[in-house]
């Protein structure tokens, strides 16, 4: 088996998504990617179980009114987890609002991960602590930030890489195209991972894009592009790892399109029945990334009931921690409204803070 | 007929599509989904994909192509999904939409309407609650409209679509679901403010999301012995000096209320214009009640930022009603 680096792969993505496992979890006979090692596969499985449980817990908390809004990534765990595990600690991650599972996989505290969606503050975690950019709400703006951070890393002589996550819809924004172009021109160590989950809220791919694939968008910018099965955790890991490695070694950027599916609605506020057929969801439920890796791990004797139960128990404990943390009523301090607008509060802000304090007395 | 503002806007779009086949409605999720606030609900089914359609996710693209379509005889009505998500289109709006008529000495007309769900008070996360009116009102060539009632929403939207000039149509999100009576025959002119409630002692000047707050304040102020007049601007640009100045000449006192930050805010323009026109009628400086000078806060803190009845009442109280009160300048 040969390892194909992104530069050898050239600019054109494959016609069909690269994969290592079939939908039933059987290994493909002639893989073009290296199968990750056993430890990695087991870690992928464990983190995906935790991620799925976290997602279910966040959804439940939304129903109880604990979160202002929650965009679920159920069904996209292979991307969320595979991509993050392919990074080293020194690398950067630039997530969107949907990537809470990527954040907890990265090690961000789950409560801090949910702060934005809970409405307590605009961001709960310290972006430098885990090298995770602020979760991005305006679409595609994070792509340019990732290129800038990656360029700066190289400028400073570091070998860290920036991975930016975006959705299929976000590829239409001007910022995505500017980011790909900058990355190509600068040969910046950045990896773009498009989680193509089929819809931008209600708008399907057919109304978003006329190219053969979203990965094709790299060609015009001189950015090598890869199309991968986004429900195959082993393949997502291998492809992202490869792209990160290439970037680290000076090989420049890669654009990866991962074909996946959003099982839940866009957010809890959305009604997906207005724009998609339940049979489509059923089809994708049959291609569940978690089932796929579990079947594979069992077939090669890496996973048995005992280990699976242990992982499930860990996931339950994790969910309980999230529940307890979110059920504690922590009210943000109104005085904080006036802090951090500037490095030092201006006289006007001090006056306004005093006014509010007076009002709240 | 009793309608919510979202319902009145939906009816306005449908009637405009019906009345003129040059009218097109497009944007993100405005087709089968009917928009995230359901303002375009049912329009794609009724008027077909050629007239009402989803675009790729690109605000600059939406506004830029709308400009081209308008140059070529169509009348696009586009939706920006939320206030802060219009910013990628800022270049197209401020440099092109606003200027084409002037640049071409009147030869090119761009009758585009940009509908923007606007403002806070609905518990939205960041970037979903901006009050961005000033970016647009500061740009010559744009008309900026924001309704405060379902009836105004219907008529002002129809008038905006008929307007030969580009219109930024700001839809106060927090008023989308409140219902009231709509008279379709009434007609509401563009560019005219309206006295929503007559009073003799002080004029509250409000628009869009703050209209109900101003009216509620007027009721509460009545109990304290102040007879409050409420002016709803409806069109922010161009400004209706006549209606507003007449009210302030009558009452001699004025408070401007808006959600957006006060510094360099719309209220500053209103206060300056009124000072220039009504100086000798004023018994007190014109006060502003606005959001603080901070980025829009997270949902759990937005109530502390947004002007409310108490704050407006407090401003009224500071309007030099007698010799004992001499300091009137206060924040927010
Ligand atoms: C600049 C901008 N325009 C519009 C929106 C409103 N919006 C939020 S999510 C979304 C769809 C995004 O789809 P996609 O990029 O495919 O990501 P997904 O939600 O599927 O993960 C839209 C239009 C936004 N957040 N930012």
Strand arrangement within the widest β-sheet of chain A reads: 1-2-3-7-6
Number of helices in the DSSP assignment of chain A: 12
Structural category of chain A:
alpha/beta
Rg of chain B is 20 Å
**Describe the biggest sheet of chain A?**
5 strands, parallel
Q: Would you identify the regions of chain A where 5 or more consecutive residues have pLDDT less than 50?
A: 1-7
Spatially, the strands of the biggest sheet of chain B line up as 3-2-4-5-7-6-12
Structural class of chain B: alpha/beta
Strand percentage of chain A? 5-15%
Query: Could you give a short account of the major beta sheet of chain B?
Result: 7 strands, mixed
Q: What is this structure's SSE topology?
A:
The complex is a heterodimer of chains A (361) and B (332).
Chain A: H1 6-9, H2 38-63, H3 77-85, E1 92-94, H4 100-106, H5 110-118, H6 141-155, E2 162-167, H7 174-186, E3 190-196, E4 199-200, E5 203-204, E6 225-229, H8 233-248, E7 254-259, H9 278-285, H10 289-299, H11 305-327, H12 347-360
Parallel strand pairs in A: 1-2, 2-3, 3-7, 6-7
Antiparallel strand pairs in A: 4-5
Helix pairs in contact in A: 2-3, 2-4, 2-10, 2-11, 3-4, 3-8, 6-7
Chain B: E1 2-4, H1 5-19, E2 23-27, H2 43-47, E3 52-54, H3 59-71, E4 75-79, H4 90-97, H5 100-103, E5 113-118, H6 133-137, E6 143-145, H7 150-162, E7 167-172, E8 179-181, E9 194-197, E10 202-206, H8 211-223, E11 228-232, E12 235-237, H9 241-251, E13 254-261, H10 266-278, E14 287-291, H11 302-305, H12 309-317
Parallel strand pairs in B: 2-3, 2-4, 4-5, 5-7, 6-7, 10-11, 10-13, 13-14
Antiparallel strand pairs in B: 1-8, 6-12, 9-11
């Amino acid at each position: 088996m040969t390892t194909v680096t992104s530069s050898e792969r050239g600019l054109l993505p494959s016609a069909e998504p690269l994969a290592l496992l079939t939908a039933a979890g059987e290994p493909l006979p002639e893989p073009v990617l290296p199968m990750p090692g056993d430890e990695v596969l087991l870690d992928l499985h464990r983190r995906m179980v935790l991620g799925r449980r976290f997602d279910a817990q966040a959804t439940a908390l939304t129903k109880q009114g604990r979160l202002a809004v929650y965009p679920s990534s159920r069904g996209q765990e292979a991307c969320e987890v595979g991509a993050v595990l392919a990074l080293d600690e020194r690398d950067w991650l630039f997530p969107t609002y949907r990537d809470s599972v990527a954040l907890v996989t990265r090690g961000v505290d789950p409560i801090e991960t949910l702060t934005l969606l809970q409405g307590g503050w605009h961001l709960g975690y310290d972006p430098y602590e885990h090298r995770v950019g602020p979760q991005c709400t305006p679409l595609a703006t994070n792509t340019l930030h990732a290129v800038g951070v990656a360029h700066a890393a190289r400028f400073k002589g570091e070998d860290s890489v920036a991975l930016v996550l975006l959705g299929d819809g976000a590829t239409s924004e001007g910022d995505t195209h500017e980011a790909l172009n900058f990355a190509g021109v600068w040969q910046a160590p950045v990896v773009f991972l498009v989680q193509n989950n089929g819809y931008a809220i209600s708008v399907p791919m057919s109304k978003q894009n006329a190219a053969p694939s979203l990965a094709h968008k790299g060609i015009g910018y001189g950015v090598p592009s890869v199309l991968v099965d986004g429900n195959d955790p082993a393949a997502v890991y291998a492809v992202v790892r490869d792209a990160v490695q290439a970037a680290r070694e000076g090989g420049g950027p890669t654009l990866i399109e991962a074909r996946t599916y959003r099982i839940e609605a866009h957010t809890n506020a959305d009604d997906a029945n207005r724009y998609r057929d339940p049979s489509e969801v059923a089809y994708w439920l049959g291609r569940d990334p978690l089932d796929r890796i579990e079947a594979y791990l069992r077939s090669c004797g890496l996973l048995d009931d005992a280990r699976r139960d242990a992982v499930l128990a860990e996931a339950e404990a994790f969910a309980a921690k999230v529940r307890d943390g979110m059920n504690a009523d922590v009210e943000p301090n109104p005085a904080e409204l006036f802090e951090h607008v500037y490095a030092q509060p201006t006289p006007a802000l001090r006056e306004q803070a005093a006014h509010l304090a007076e009002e709240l007395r | 007929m009793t309608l919510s503002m979202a319902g009145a806007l939906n009816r306005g779009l449908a009637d405009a599509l019906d009345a003129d086949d040059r009218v097109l409605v497009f944007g993100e999720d405005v087709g089968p989904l009917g928009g995230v606030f359901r303002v375009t609900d049912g329009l794609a089914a009724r008027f077909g994909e050629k007239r009402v359609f989803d675009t790729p996710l690109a605000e600059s693209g939406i506004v830029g192509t709308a400009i081209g379509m308008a140059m070529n005889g169509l009348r696009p009505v586009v939706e920006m999904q939320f206030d802060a998500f219009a910013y990628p289109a800022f270049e197209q709006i401020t440099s092109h939409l606003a200027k084409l008529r002037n640049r071409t000495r009147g030869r090119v007309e761009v009758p585009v309407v940009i509908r923007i769900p606007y403002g806070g008070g609905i518990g939205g996360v960041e970037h979903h609650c901006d009050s961005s009116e000033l970016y647009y009102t500061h740009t010559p060539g744009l008309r900026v409209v924001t309704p405060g009632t379902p009836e105004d929403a219907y008529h002002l939207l129809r008038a905006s679509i008929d307007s030969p000039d580009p219109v930024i149509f700001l839809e106060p999100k927090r008023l989308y679901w409140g219902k009231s009576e709509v008279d379709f025959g009434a007609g509401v002119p563009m560019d005219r403010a309206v006295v929503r409630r007559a009073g003799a002692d002080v004029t509250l000047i409000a628009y869009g999301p703050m209209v109900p707050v101003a009216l509620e304040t007027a009721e509460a102020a009545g109990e304290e012995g102040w007879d409050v007049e409420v002016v709803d601007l409806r069109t922010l640009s161009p400004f209706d000096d006549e209606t507003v100045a007449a009210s302030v000449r009558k009452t001699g006192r004025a408070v401007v209320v808006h959600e957006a930050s006060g510094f360099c805010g719309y209220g500053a323009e209103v206060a300056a214009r009124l000072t220039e026109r009504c100086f000798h009628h004023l018994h007190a400086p014109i006060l502003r009640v606005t959001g603080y000078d901070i980025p829009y806060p997270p949902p759990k803190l937005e109530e502390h930022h947004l002007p409310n009845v108490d704050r407006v009442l407090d401003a009224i109280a500071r309007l030099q009603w007698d010799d004992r009160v001499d300091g009137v300048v206060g924040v927010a």
